[in-house]
Amino acid sequence: MHMHKYEKIWLTFGIACLFVFLTVIGVSAFAEGKQPPSCLTTIDPEKVDQTPPFNKPGLVKTGDNEYQLNIVVSAFAFTPNQIEIPKGAKVTINVTSKDVIHGFEVAGTNINMMVEPGYINTITKTFNQTGEYTILCNEYCGAGHHMMTGRIKVVE
Amino acid sequence: MAKPELQRTKTNTKKMKEHDTSLKGTLASVFLLGFFIIFSWVSVYFLFLHRL
Question: Which ipTM score applies to this complex?
């Protein structure tokens, strides 16, 4: 097969780029553990209010400077929606939905999850700077979607 | 009326084909697009790392 010289150049370049991209993502995912929010834990969406830890949603201290934040998402609210976190805390956030698909985004951070009923989403984040963060629902979930907000305050 | 082309020989057509394939512009646009994709990919990746 006859191939133009330039064609060989850009095909090699393109395939090399593809390998570089995949290697960078592969190394950061499997060697450095930068994983997307887990969705492997399941829950009965009709019994969220009776299932621990979601029967008592909120911030729970689990160790030295380590916390667990359990949030129940439903139409159209985050429970709880006002959270205070001490600076430097390593927080494992567990989120589940009681009804339809919602979004859980903490604006300006990498926390951004699609919350599906029946699944528990988990992400861990260390809050190193004081300030206020807004929690938003970014999956259209109904008439009150735009009013679904919450606030995280990182304090000294 | 269509006429059968009796004049054109095999060597003639081959010569014309070589002349028609200048891919300089294509090479330039492919690399321009390529560098734009690389730039966007790298910036998004570093934004993600910065927010960790």
Answer: 0.71
Pairwise CB contact (< 8 Å): A13 & B34: yes
Report d(CA A43, CA B20) in Å as an integer: 65
Which residue from B minimizes the CA distance to A32? B49
Looking at domain A45-155, which CATH architecture does it have? Sandwich (2.60)
User: How many angstroms separate the CA atoms of A37 and A96, rounded?
Assistant: 12
Q: Tell me the pTM.
A: 0.72
**For every one of its 156 residues, what pLDDT tens digit does chain A have, with 9 covering 90 and above?**
788 888 999 999 999 999 999 999 899 888 887 777 776 788 888 888 888 888 888 888 888 889 999 999 998 889 888 999 998 899 999 999 998 999 999 998 888 999 999 889 888 888 888 999 999 999 999 898 999 999 999 998
Domain boundaries along the sequence of chain B:
23-52
Out of B21, B24, B38, closest to residue A17 by CB: B38
